[in-house]
Amino acid sequence: MPSSTGRPGLEGESLESFVKDVVGEDMLRVEEDLGQGFVRLKSSEAERRQAAQDIRCSEDIVLEMLRNARDAGARNIFLATGREGGKRTIVVIDDGAGIPEDMHERVFQPRVTSKLDSAKLDKWGIHGRGMALYSISANSEYSGVQLSVPGLGTSIKVRTDASRLPERADQSTFPFFERTESGYQMRGPKNILRTAAEFAFEHRKTLSVYCGTETEVVATLFEHGTAMVPASKRLFGGGMDDVPITQALAASCDDRQLVDAAARLGLDISARSARRVLDEDISPVPSLMQRLESESFPASAESGADAGASSDAGLVRGIGREPSVRTARVSRDDLDAFEIEAMDAFAGLSEKYYLATVRPRARQRGSKLVVEFDLVEKGS
Fold first, then answer.
1. How far apart are alpha carbons 262 and 256 in whole angstroms?
2. 220: closest CA among 244, 243, 190, 249?
3. 356-367 pLDDT, tens digit each
4. CA-CA distance, 61 to 65, in Å (whole number)?
5. Closest CA to 272 of 258, 285, 287
6. Could you give the CA distance from residue 90 to residue 81 in angstroms, rounded to a whole number?
7. Strand intervals (E) in the chain
8. Considering the entire predicted model, what is its pTM?
9. Using CB atoms within 10 A as the burial measure, which of 121, 206, 266, 300 is most buried?
């Protein structure tokens, strides 16, 4: 019933809105007014501000999601990321402990953690305060558990607005190692690739990290599953409820099943891409440690004996195979220019086979320059 003052009754509005109108929004954030312009914030407001400060860029979100997967006991972590316009999508899928269904939303609330007695101090600081997922939620347009089964793993998807949450401009350069007086040091822009590579390097003895586009990660998950799950279990249907979610895509027998199974993990791919995965036209990505070992160490290292003196001797076993060859590192600007020039060389082939003119991707892999064209039919 309307009040005599013309205001709607309390039953027609939230208590919070009513309190804001009566005492002002500031009072909801302040525990005590200390005078002279100083106040003591309420814990909820302090947590909100801390959450906003914990995450300063897309790379921070990636790191926190990787640390969460590690703390859940994951042995394999799959990171899918991509950007369309100003929107960045990040999906992390692991084979760790999983999250009960009734906790899927609560884990994004402040101070909610499964690590009451096991907070970790790693090279990036303390982890286990129950603030990581809350901080991610506070800085993203969307964050949610896509799929999680206790004991079988978790998939978490995050979408951010790059105009509000910045990230490195160069997201394509893979890190490389440089020899210094103290040993090998990782170099390169601190983008998502380097963030994930540093994490993979730090935990190389306990887990593997795979990173790529959503389609590449689907291909990697499919291969991972087919390698781990017996054919009899995959081909005769059912019986997949007890396998880690990182292996579940292997049960897909056609492109529609693969699209649906990937979507349950938060990975959105087209039926055409699914067909290409099943036909093995899209290659799975190697682990980041495999990439670091094959792509990131300079080919100009000294003898194998010298390399063996390094504290990470196992990582430099490929160094020294061509001791007389010095490999130049091509800049990203030059690779961008080369990609544009390569489009002209591709024009004849695209005309002959009725292919769309697409810009290729050029990247350096150790002493090799790799250029990839997508063979897409016109109008598709």
1. 10
2. 249
3. 877 888 877 656
4. 6
5. 258
6. 5
7. 30-35, 38-41, 76-84, 87-94, 120-122, 125-127, 142-149, 153-161, 176-180, 183-187, 208-212, 361-365, 368-372
8. 0.68
9. 266
